[in-house]
Amino acid sequence: MTKQDDKQETATLVPVDRHALAGFNGEWTLKLSEFADVPCTSPDEEAWWVEWRNHVHTELTRLDAERKEVTGPLDREKKLIDGWYKADRAPAERFKELANKKLGAYALAQDAAATAAQQAATAALASGDNDAVVDALAAIPDIQKAAGNSTRLEWVWEVENIDQVPAMYTRKVIDDAAVQAYVDRMGDGHYPMMPGIRFTKVAKVRPTGRRK
Fold it and tell me: In terms of Cα–Cα distance, which of 96, 109, 86, 28 is closest to 62?
């Protein structure tokens, strides 16, 4: 199949029942208001909340499946179209990179020449050689900016040896995996303690496969 043939294909859209969606929103907005003050302080209340939590989890799973049925064809079509454009624009992107590389190299060469001339002028001035000063100043290039282009020179950096970097420019990084491994080794019934770290116990709740 050619790309021209592919262009004629369109995703088969699944209709969205906006009325049903609005009803779903209204139903759970009402329940959210009604149940906000229902306590969970006893085994019976815990069971009640588990039942309702599992029910809403099932409803959300159903809604997600419905959404994926609607968006699936669109996602596949978008992926196909994105692939076409990505492949066909690649040479133009490489040409743009080439042009920027050449323009950047030219700007750096001009800057290097200007810096060298300025340093030569400074050295000549310090030595009292006025003729050399004049020659050095004359060598400073007259940098002209082409219309339609903007070039900004900036410094970039990479770390070669972090031990040599002044402490004010570094910061300590916690090894999350090592701290979590320490907590896991503690097991239930023990309280983790470590200088510089505050441990707080939280509850992570999720539905399981078991249903009433």
Answer: 28
